[in-house]
Amino acid sequence: MSYEFMAIEFAKVTFLFSVIMGFASILSWVERKQSALMQDRIGANRADIMGFRLLGLFHILADGLKGFTKQDFIPPKAHKVLHTIAPGLGFVFAIMAFAAIPFGGIYVFGDTTVSLQVFPISSGLLMVFAFMSLGIYGFVLAGWASYNNYATLGGLRASSQMISYEITMGATLIGALIVYGSVQLQEIVLYQGELLWGWLPKWGLILQPLGCILFVTAALAETKRVPFDVPEGESEIVGYFVEYSGMKFLLFFMTDFIETVLAAALTTTLFLGGWQVPYLLADGFHFPWGGEWLLPVWAVMSLQVGAFIFKVAALCFFFMLIRWTLPRFRWDQLMKLGWTIMLPLSILNTVVTALVVLLIEG
Question: How many CB atoms lie within 10 A of CB 75?
Fold first, then answer.
């Protein structure tokens, strides 16, 4: 293993981690500022440094300082070890799920080939789902280890919701996987770079519109955000983290935002062409009407990485819009939506997709 290889891998991990944490931090500000704009309020505007408020962005630093300095409390009868490690479990598995998601293409710089994917595993999609499933143990353990009936019930609600919607999420993707013919996320993005009828990008949104809507809905439920925040419901029904404070609570808080970014990144990769920019190939733009604009490799890489980040940011904005628009589902409504509406529709989408592919391929 050469030093050059290790330096490239370190740079990719550092860049990806910085972008994820940057998104999560900014979302903690966007949540308050966007809700304020939608409700005709000023929003976060108190934290300042030497009189400069910068639209309330210093609240991100204030939140971090508060989390680090606030007293850490563990209930007397709680399981101290599990109570301590539970917040970290959800956080770590949410971060690890990003390793298989490509945030750029494969580029050649002289004798060096660089793939902007931290862990290019052949079964990348399955790995992402596995980490998403493991993350739920952190929330269940947090509820049980707190020795509080309300926290335990919150943990049970979280586990049942995650199981219900992960089944639906997996079923919604079968149709897309039939079309793509692979579970390798880089290959899925490369497939979406091809053109339909010579001009229309083969994005999943175009080939699988129903699958895209169902997947986004199930992914939102996985984030446990409004209208799917029954496991938490901090304002009325009390969630699994009721006995947490300080940095441990901040970890749960950040995990919610990281899961939101993960849902946006997965939707981008599977249905919005990932890092693909329409008509942009390895050497520049090649337009279907005949023109071309050649670009150096670094410019192509910058445009494609920028396109991926822009799509993720736009989806995060859309998710936040939903979060401050719709009311919370009741528990029975949540289960009914998942099991009696979304799951049958996803199975129908799979059957129709399989029939269409069979007819086209003869």
Answer: 16
Q: Are 278 and 201 in contact (CB under 8 A)?
A: yes
Contact 124, 100 (CB under 8 A): yes
CA dist., res. 271 & res. 111, Å (int): 33
Spatial distance between the Cα atoms of 51 and 66, rounded to a whole number of angstroms:
20
Q: The whole model's pTM is what?
A: 0.93
Strands 195-196 and 200-201: antiparallel
Please give the Cα distance from 15 to 358 (Å, whole number). Answer: 42
Rounded CA-CA distance 76/53 in Å is 41
| Paired tokens of 215 | 């997947």
Cα 182 from Cα 178, distance rounded (Å) = 8
CA–CA distances in Å: residue 357 to residues 148, 175, 187, 354: 52, 10, 19, 5
Instruction: Tell me if the bond preceding 327 is cis, omega within 30° of 0.
Output: no
State which H helix or E strand residue 109 sits in: strand 106-109
* Amino acid 10: pLDDT: 94
The residue ranges of the chain whose pLDDT is under 70 are 1, 234-237
**Nearest-angstrom CA–CA distance, 144 and 82:** 9
